[in-house]
Specification:
The chain is mainly β. It folds into four domains: 77 residues, no CATH class; 61 residues, no CATH class; 123 residues, Jelly Rolls; 130 residues, Jelly Rolls (Sandwich), CATH 2.60.120. 8% of the residues lie in helices and 33% in strands. The strands form six sheets. A five-stranded mixed sheet has the order 6-8-13-10-11, with no helix packed on it. The chain has a five-stranded mixed sheet with strand order 15-17-22-19-20, with no helix packed on it. The protein has a four-stranded antiparallel sheet with strand order 7-14-9-12, with no helix packed on it. It is elongated, with a radius of gyration of 45 Å. The N terminus is likely disordered.
Length: 426
């Protein structure tokens, strides 16, 4: 065998060196893949040049520990496992949802919205529901509920005695109108079919209240009152009216019970006169005389109500309406006392008037809607003596009433009597 020359030896050494270099590079690639699969950051490589130094210029990370290695420039390396994530600008807050009803915090798709059990808006971010918006009035389908417009049954505007408010019927709220009795020929003659504005008036006791509506625009308005806002049957009887002319004013005076009442200013939308502005005032007024007497106001909001009186202190100005509600044919020509009360909602009225002295005196009790109108009588009762005159379960509309305790004139002399009266309703 011929000995190798120095040139041949050099070539073979170079070939073996290249082969080792290729093996080292392949090993580095394999270890780099393993490092990536472990989630580490590649920041240095082994000495693949064979010069005993460490190469930090982009080679694979052969250190598989969780502790990050310092970079060459001396700065601190941040591991991606602990890096802080900043939410997008659309998310108002990144406070995690601590709602105990969230049994599965995962969510999709990203940026989806929902309502939390506490009535706020949550957004899906990074696979979790987080608080996005606090809602003042609750949440529906991932959106905060809008404010309830004022002047509706859900949110009536405030009205106080003695104060004047300016309002408008230029609204989209139009589910209400007054009862047919107000539209009859004996009433206003037609119904307000346009939009309305609702006010809430709180009264501490039974009183007579006058409402005045003055048009600020050239249109027509109507007014009516309810004890329960969304119940037309609770409309106060005989307490409705409307503008006598375009741009005119009108008033409604009625006896009202304690509690909250709902005052409607409604639009007729009549003869091309649409919604408009108005001025509304509510004020307490003195109960006028009824014949020779001023009715005594009694509160019946806490039942039963007991009243004592003596017809000797009354006057002889009124008679009941005979042949009405079972009343006897003869006249109540003696002295009477007059009381006034009001119901906030339709009710069944019960009255008992027991003569005390003399106990055998005849006595009558009857109820009217209008004090000076005997044809407005709605209920009556009679006692021939030694027993109570009663009214039982008389169905009355909401509104004010006048109650008379009256003597009789008969073939034998009849005298005034003291009495105890009990009123209740249900």
């Amino acid at each position: 065998m011929r000995p190798q020359t120095s040139k041949v030896r050099d070539k073979m050494a170079q070939r073996r060196s290249g082969e080792w270099w290729m093996l080292a590079a392949m090993l580095a690639l394999v270890l780099g893949g393993l490092a990536c699969s472990e989630g580490t950051v590649a920041n240095h490589s082994p000495d693949i040049a064979g010069d005993g130094t460490t190469d930090n210029e982009g080679g694979p990370d052969l250190d598989l520990s969780d502790t990050p290695d310092p970079p060459v420039d001396g700065t601190t390396e941040v591991s991606p496992d602990t890096a802080e994530v900043t939410p997008p600008d659309a998310v108002e807050t990144t406070v995690p949802d601590t709602d105990p009803t969230d049994v599965s915090p995962g969510c999709s798709p990203a940026n989806a919205l929902r309502c939390s059990s506490t009535g706020n808006v949550e957004i899906c971010y990074n696979g979790r529901w987080i608080l996005s918006e606090i809602c003042d009035r609750g949440c529906t389908d991932g959106v905060c509920d809008a404010p309830v417009p004022g002047g509706t049954c859900a949110a009536p505007l405030p009205l106080t005695l003695g104060a004047t408010v300016i309002g408008t019927t230029d609204t989209v709220y139009n589910p209400n109108t007054w009862l047919q009795a107000c539209s009859n020929p004996s009433g206003y003659g037609m119904a307000p079919t346009g939009p309305e504005t609702v006010y809430a008036l709180d009264l501490p006791t039974t009183m007579l209240v006058k409402f005045t509506v003055t048009a600020l625009d050239q249109t027509y308005f109507g007014l009516y009152i309810r004890g329960t806002c969304d119940n037309p049957a609770s409309q106060l009887h005989s307490a409705c009216s409307g503008s006598p002319s375009v741009g005119g004013f009108f008033s409604v005076t009625t006896l009202m019970a304690p509690g909250t009442h709902y005052v409607f200013v409604d639009d007729f939308n009549l003869q091309n006169y649409g919604p408009g502005r108005f001025q509304l005032k509510a004020e307490q007024v003195i109960v006028p005389s009824c014949g020779a007497l001023v009715p005594t106001i009694i509160n019946v909001d806490t039942t039963p109500t007991v009243v004592s009186g003596d017809t000797a202190n009354g006057s002889s100005m009124h008679n009941w309406l005979e042949y009405n509600q079972g009343c006897d044919a003869f006249q109540t020509g003696g002295k009477e006392l007059i009381y006034a009360f009001a119901l906030r909602n339709p009710s069944k009225l019960n009255v008992s008037v027991l003569p005390l002295d003399p106990a055998d005196s005849k006595v009558a009790v009857y109820v009217r809607q209008a004090c000076n109108d005997r044809f407005s009588q709605v209920a009556c009762g009679y006692s021939p003596g030694n027993q109570a005159a009663t009214i039982t379960d008389a169905q009355l509309e909401a509104g004010g009433y006048y109650l008379f305790v009256d003597d009789f004139l008969s073939t034998r002399p009849d005298t005034p009597q003291s009495f105890d009266m009990t009123l209740s309703y249900r």
